[in-house]
# Entry
Amino acid sequence: METTSTLEKTLRLIALTLVVIFFMFPIFWILLMSFQTNETILAIPPSVIFTPTLSNYAALITGKLTTAAGTLDIAFMRNLMNSIFLSVTSVAISLVLGVPAAYAFARHKFKGSEDIAFTLLSFRFAPPLLVLLPLTQYFQWLGLSDTYFGLIWVYQLICLPLILWIVRGYFEDISADVEYAYRIAGHSWFATFRKIALPLAGPGIAAAGLLAFIFAWNNFVFALVLASADKQPVTVGALAFVTSSGIQYGQIASAIVLSVTPTLALALYAQRYLVEGLSLGAVKG
Amino acid sequence: MTTLQLKNIVKRYKTNTVLDNLSLDVADGETLVLFGPSGAGKTVLLRLVAGVIDPEEGQILIGGEDVSDIDAEHRGIGMAFQNFALFPHMSAFDNIASPLTATNSTKDAISAGVHKVAKLLKIDHVLSHHPKALSNGQKQRTALARALAGSPPLLLLDDPLRNVDAKLRFEMRLELPRLLAAQGATVVYVTQDYKEAMALGDRIAVMSQGRIRQIGTPEDIYNTPADIEIARLFGDPTINLLDVTPKAGPEGIHVELSNVKVTLPDMPADVAGRACVIGLRPEAIAFTDAGAPGAIPVTVEAETPLNEKTVTLVLTARGREILVSRPAGTPGPVSGPAHIAVNGKAAFLFDKESGGLIRTAAAPMTRNGEAA
# Structure
């Protein structure tokens, strides 16, 4: 038994290592690239031994990109701020709208409620390109194209269904009796929502908010079409590194590192909420 | 204290009628037990009274006032749930305090109120614990304390002892009447346990399939069950029910059990020849000697000693199973052939077709098995 167990352990370790390498290597490679110049990146054979340089980060932060063809202005820091602003605001608005709606869908079955909820979810099925063209036209008529307001509005297509459907499930998991008990004790439905439903669904709301944030952050196509340079997030801004004089791999790598960092930090921070959220069932009884 | 009246209540879920034209009066300060199998509509009835669901038809009056337009939080009701329904993210203290915080009481008043009721229910040492850290019994007491904390004039208790162990249930069954009396509230108590119903109820309403089948004092229900079903539900061990066809004879109506004549005194003459079911509580049957008058030969199958009585399962010559109960410590056969005698005075007679009671026992037994 001892030998099989050791063998099992070894095999498991190997399998895990392979999986981790498969998923983590590209990220690790990007991290290495971000400290290299274009010359060392493109060297054949590639090497992990090089003299690290911070020039890529410096270029991003100062906004001056020096290439063989001359100096280019890049707005990466502005893109990063745009990303943060757009994602945070979109998720905040989605939470304000989506959480009460999720509660309503979970607790009050009215005629057509399932249909409305499903229609909202169906926004997630449609490829964004399908709605992009009419949306662009509407936005031009309405004067919403190339505004933060318009972008945040479109981002609701991404965030709202996600939050609505995830949080609805968490509300449904709360025993109705617990809420009844609070109402019967003399509290209004709103107090019950605030003091019972919200805290109990808290981990779920945090998880849904985090997911919505990641989806909003990673969005590319809406921002590409509907926003001009000064309102674009990092996902679109990274295109600026494809210059006439070549692709600036080093800067792209460091831009990726910088733009991944906020979501990664958030995910790590919220990890315990995610775990708590997933084990909400333990609350009963 | 207040009164509760339900008038012609109908509650449907889609096509399923859960409460069917149900009317009920609960007097001021009374403890009414709703007793019935699961799915009878007991819990739905409590929720209608509490105001968390609405009836399709009918009126609910609390203290004589129609409450159909009054929301749950303004009905002045205390309720304990079968699954406790404690707020998992609040301490026991905050759980119990919830009816008090709703009324804008001062912090001191809330604290005093919580400690008073917690002391009454012996949970004052666990007030800082969250529900997760409480034992089942403590959870149950916390739920009860929460229902009592606001001193509501009307208390709804939905099978609060269902999810606690037997020992605790027994303790609480003893403790509850005192607690409820101290509150002075009008109480509607739901249970599926007939002993609990008998111990706690001033009156018992027996429900099944959305209707009230019988309502009366515990003694009424036990001694005059309206039909076979109710007779079967009330009594432990269960009443013996045997198909019989009564016959008329010189000594009045009698039935034959294993060809032995058992006279049933005071029976109406028209039952002769009708298909009937005789109901014999295990206490109404005793072991006897072979030569004694009315001795029915049986075979002893199994014996179960309970605390205060011994229950024996016997088979008649025709293979019908009969339960016989006798006070613990009295001698009786353990196996093999034996004889039983039936106390015809303590027999119930039901109509086989309708299940309705034809005639109650002329000399009903009390709950303890003694002749009344």
